[in-house]
Amino acid sequence: MNQKYVFILSVVLIFLLMELSYVGYPTLYKITDDKITSLFLKSHSRQEASKHVAIVDIDARSIKEIGQWPFSRDIISKALINLKNAGAGVIGFDIVFSNPDRLSPHSIAKQLNLKEDYPNYDLLFAQTLQETPVILGYYFDMSNDVHSLAPKRLANISLENSPNLDTFNEAKSLVDNIDILKNAAYSSGHFNLTNITSGVVDSAPLLIKYKGELYPSLALEMIRISLAEQTIKVHNSELGVLGVSLNEIAIATNTHAEIKLNFRGPAFSYPYIPFYDILTNNFDPKEVEGKFILIGTSDIGLNDLVTTIYDPAMPGVEVHATTIDNILNQDFYHTPLDSYSYGIFLIFFSSIVLALFLYFTPPSLSIFIFASFIAIVGYFNYYLIFSEHIIIGFSAVFITLFLSTGVFALLSYYFENIQRKKIFNKLSSKVSVDVANELLKYNQDILNIKKREVTVLFSDIRGFTQLSEEIKDPEKLIKVLNMYMSPMVDSITEFNGTIDKFIGDAIMAYWNAPLKIKNHADLAVQSALRQLEQLNKLNMRLEKEFNIVLQIGIGINSGEAIVGEMGSTGRSDYTIIGDTVNLASRVESLTKNYKCALIITEQTKELLSKEYDIIKLDTLKVKGKVEETTIYTINKLL
């Protein structure tokens, strides 16, 4: 198949393969995409954490001072009142109170069947919730389908443009707070993290679908309450979610209503205040005044640690702090609905455009072109992340770059080998093995037609027709001819000559093509002298075996000629043509008239650099030539 069409077909197949896998099977690249994104994020300087967010930490010290977790809810109530009195803005729990307080006197009395009226800490906690700016947290189970009631939702969810909910993350069941607390709290929000495929938390779902309704995250609900905004607008489409907005705050999301988190660093990037210090009022009110307060835990034993790109064990509560921080500062990342259009364009750029550059530029620039495309794609990814805060999958693009370059290199190597074999096959019978191997370093261009100064040699056996009649046995004649041709050909290739053709008993050869050779006229003359030496040796054998003696004539001429591959399709050959060739042939025939074995022209003599025993023969007009030509014979190299 034609090389050009193979390249085109290969590039188109790579393009289609990568486009189909990118669009149809995006999960194939998810883990690699995350690693590439993490690499870029880690290479960039991180922003300082917001001063408007603080974490009340149920840490190891607090547990040691107060007693084992869970704390009794009168203790939690007291801590909430202290936060309220210190001027805390909005308080969110990264904790779900899914069971009644087992440490409540009311609960213990009930277990002991005591009839007296004992304090009910759940009721006390509920009363505190009514008096404090608290948003409770709950957890959606995304896989286990267990019957559960819908959580409390205060916000009005407004679907703009389309009622389609198919692309939202959908929960199967719910782990919620007990009714007395749920009903007392002003509002609540889920503290789920996005379904994790790589084991690294990098996203936060702002809305989750449950039983056909949408429910906001704890972070989103805390921001909504702080803005005194009733409605969460969901900018939706038939293809998926575009984003959500709260009054003036627009939050671009991916199609699942998730944002990519812009972490400020490893764990404890935000202020952590021990819960015990809040309980004992041993803190500066300025640490919580007017701030978003999240109550969670950093204690390893409570098993709320997650892996992020900066930390293998970050408290889960800090993820929600990051979500609030990112939304307030509008510096979160997102994957837009039209991210596929970016990817499709980049895959086109990394396959079709790259292939065009590779095809139309010298192979020596391939590495540079590949590196340039890697740099362009890498910079574009950097620009999208840090200027536009857009994160899209780039692993398919990088794979396309490597695949396109690799296939191009393999095909180039394959076709280059074919071309080299073609050159070798065409010329190996014309030149020495060393020259043939040297030709393998060149491409097809070496066979192209061009003008070149060459030295041409014709040799012929004198009286071959008469000899053929004397040797009546054809096999004997062929044997004699082969015995003659072998040393003559060796004498030509020994001096880097190229055999053009055999014309019966005649030989045509030339120098300085296809490879350029210095002193080509000298080499041709030395080859002719060597042929005459070999003929003398051969004649001794021929006289002994066949009682015959061969005589030859050699003519040499130098000048410009047309060299290259000539002929019809499938029947071409590398050869030379022109007046220089014709004159060499005419000069060879003159050896009969001047009774000498070797004649060279003046053009060849002028190119000789070595000293020879040269004798001028004549100046004459050769048949077919208008200008006179001076001819010489050479006896030996001095």
Topology diagram in text:
Blueprint: H1 3-24, H2 30-43, E1 53-57, H3 60-66, H4 73-85, E2 90-93, H5 105-111, H6 121-131, E3 134-141, E4 156-160, E5 173-175, H7 179-184, E6 187-190, E7 203-205, E8 207-210, E9 213-216, H8 218-226, E10 231-236, E11 241-246, E12 249-252, E13 258-260, E14 272-274, H9 275-279, E15 292-296, E16 305-306, E17 314-315, H10 316-329, H11 339-360, H12 366-386, H13 395-427, H14 433-439, E18 450-461, H15 464-470, H16 474-494, E19 498-503, E20 506-511, H17 520-546, E21 552-566, E22 573-577, H18 579-593, E23 598-601, H19 602-607, E24 612-621, E25 628-637
Parallel strand pairs: 1-14, 1-15, 2-3, 2-15, 3-6, 4-10, 21-23
Antiparallel strand pairs: 3-5, 7-13, 8-9, 10-11, 11-12, 16-17, 18-20, 18-21, 19-20, 21-22, 23-25, 24-25
What does this 3D model show about the protein?
With 638 residues, this protein is an alpha/beta fold. The chain has three domains: 3-23 and 337-393, no CATH class; 52-329, no CATH class; 428-637, Alpha-Beta Plaits. Strands 18, 19, 20, 21, 22, 23, 24 and 25 form an eight-stranded mixed sheet that branches. Strands 1, 2, 3, 5, 6, 14 and 15 form a seven-stranded mixed sheet that branches. Strands 4-10-11-12 form a four-stranded mixed sheet, with no helix packed on it. Helix 1 packs antiparallel against helix 13 (395-427). The mean pLDDT is 89.
